[in-house]
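We were asked to recover a plausible sequence for a given structure. The inputs and outputs are reproduced exactly as logged, with field labels preserved.

PROBLEM: sequence recovery
POSITIONS: 510
GIVEN STRUCTURE:
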């Protein structure tokens, strides 16, 4: 029996629904409806009474009444919810929280994961991912095997949680509360999926999956690469398709896929492997790739999230100017993303910047983090620039990068300012590190005109420097911060040297 053919009509409804908000007028109608629902639902909560949600009937009133917020602005309210208090930011008692460590090593953030947020947004967004994929690939047999979903755990820093409250990675919350029917189509079991010790978890993931009929995998590219290599080694195979001949798609997200694309080509059959990017953060499931070509994702406008966008020139202002809703963004512009959602986030700046790739329909790409960039010399280097450049440099040199981070080296009496890249190789460049640095520097100039201008004539900014990381350095650093695991991310760019200096100290220890 072809189970995929039976499921396909169900998912086709979502593709048709997406067609209703494919132009700015449809986007406005869908988004205003979402906002009206959110305001109505939360009218009697503490935040709803604070800002008189019952009196707000339009987006324009909402924008004039409710301030833009960052996490420290809502931390006290969230901790009231973690403590068990009901109806603070969303009606009822919230018992699930996604712990987000951020990228700077500061205090953890705890994002409410409400029942409606799970149903409407996170699971709803996952359903959209499957729907778009099945629409793109009509011969798919996605449901005729198992999904291998790589998740996190409920390890957290809070002592004495209120009864029934669980805090952990978003993926742990998703797996713990998933529909039992879905469990019939996924591996590994919850016992393994929710293990917190990665050293124990990795071999058990491999054993649980190596003999199964896996048709699709979902997770963060860097961590899944480690798992897949382990499966291949365990099976004595050459590629993952030798182990899982029916594997057809990787639903990936969390970090840019570009730097890992060539490494995945070496362990898969490129003729059979497909990739679909998702934008599923702790704060919500926001977008999914809806075309075969990578690089842009369809913003999900009817899934419990209302979107706003801050122009980059006004990011960081106490009351940012120039904020626009989804139906008023301009293609080609980069904005900081602001969300209002059924998880109880109200005009919340999530810390990501996105580039508008098109408006009919509204597609975005992730440009980076609002605090993950280098602009020490006016070069305005964003993560997407760095990912693109390093992917091209790897392609030109045959190198493979396991992980990287970069930061400025400031001007001194004896040297110009420059960027320092700390790179852990999977495969070092045959041409040598110095030639790779030349190529990477040239690629950065190609993708970023500000960097190119500062590098012009080697006057203001010197060529970048590459420092080689010992094998396992990035995992070691994550472990020292308590962040080692399948959903943790490496900070790619920093505008100061705090992170890279800690890593360099670890790099010199062994």
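RECOVERED SEQUENCE:
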């Amino acid at each position: 029996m072809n189970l995929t053919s039976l499921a396909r009509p169900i998912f086709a409804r979502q593709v048709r629904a997406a067609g209703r908000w494919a132009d700015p007028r449809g986007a406005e109608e869908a988004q205003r409806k979402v906002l009206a629902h959110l305001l109505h639902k939360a009218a009697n909560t503490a935040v709803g009474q604070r800002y008189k949600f019952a009196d707000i009937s339009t987006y324009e009133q909402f924008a004039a009444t409710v301030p833009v917020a960052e996490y420290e602005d809502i931390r006290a309210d969230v901790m009231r919810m973690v403590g068990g208090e009901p109806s603070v930011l969303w009606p009822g008692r919230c018992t699930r929280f996604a712990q987000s460590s951020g990228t700077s090593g500061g205090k953890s953030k705890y994002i409410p994961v409400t029942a409606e947020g799970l149903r409407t947004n996170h699971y709803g967004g996952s359903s959209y991912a499957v729907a778009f994929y099945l629409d793109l690939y009509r011969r798919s047999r996605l449901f005729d095997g198992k999904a291998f979903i790589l998740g996190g755990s409920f390890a957290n820093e809070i002592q004495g949680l209120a009864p029934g409250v669980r805090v952990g990675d978003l993926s742990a919350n998703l797996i713990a509360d998933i529909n039992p029917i879905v469990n019939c189509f996924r591996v590994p079991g919850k016992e393994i999926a929710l293990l917190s010790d990665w050293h124990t978890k990795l071999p058990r993931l491999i054993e649980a999956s190596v003999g199964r009929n896996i048709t699709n995998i979902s997770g963060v590219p860097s961590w899944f690469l480690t798992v897949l290599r382990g499966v291949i080694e365990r099976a004595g195979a050459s590629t993952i398709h030798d182990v899982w001949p029916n594997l057809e798609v990787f639903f990936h997200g969390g970090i840019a896929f570009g730097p890992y694309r060539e490494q995945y080509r070496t362990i898969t059959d490129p003729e059979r492997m497909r990739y679909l990017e998702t934008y599923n953060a702790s704060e919500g499931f926001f977008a999914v790739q809806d075309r075969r070509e990578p690089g842009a994702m369809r913003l999900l406008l009817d899934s419990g999230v209302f979107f706003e966008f801050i122009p980059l020139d006004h990011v960081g202002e106490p009351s940012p100017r120039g904020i626009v809703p989804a139906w008023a963004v301009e293609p080609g512009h980069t904005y900081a993303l602001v969300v209002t959602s059924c998880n109880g986030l109200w005009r919340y700046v999530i810390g990501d910047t996105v580039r508008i790739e098109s408006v009919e329909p509204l597609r975005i790409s992730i440009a980076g983090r609002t605090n993950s960039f280098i602009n020490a010399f006016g070069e305005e280097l964003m993560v997407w620039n760095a990912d693109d450049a390093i992917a091209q440099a790897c392609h030109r040199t045959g190198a493979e990068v396991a992980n990287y981070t970069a930061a400025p080296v400031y001007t001194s009496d004896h040297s110009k300012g420059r960027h320092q890249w700390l790179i852990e190789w999977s495969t070092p460049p045959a041409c040598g590190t110095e030639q790779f640095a030349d190529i990477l520097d040239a690629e950065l100039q190609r993708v970023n005109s500000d960097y190119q201008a500062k590098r012009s004539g080697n006057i203001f900014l010197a060529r970048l420097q590459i420092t080689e990381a010992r094998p396992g350095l990035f995992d070691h650093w994550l472990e020292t911060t308590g962040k080692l695991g399948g959903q943790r991310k490496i900070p790619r760019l920093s505008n100061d040297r705090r992170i890279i200096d800690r890593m360099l100290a670890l790099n010199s220890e062994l």
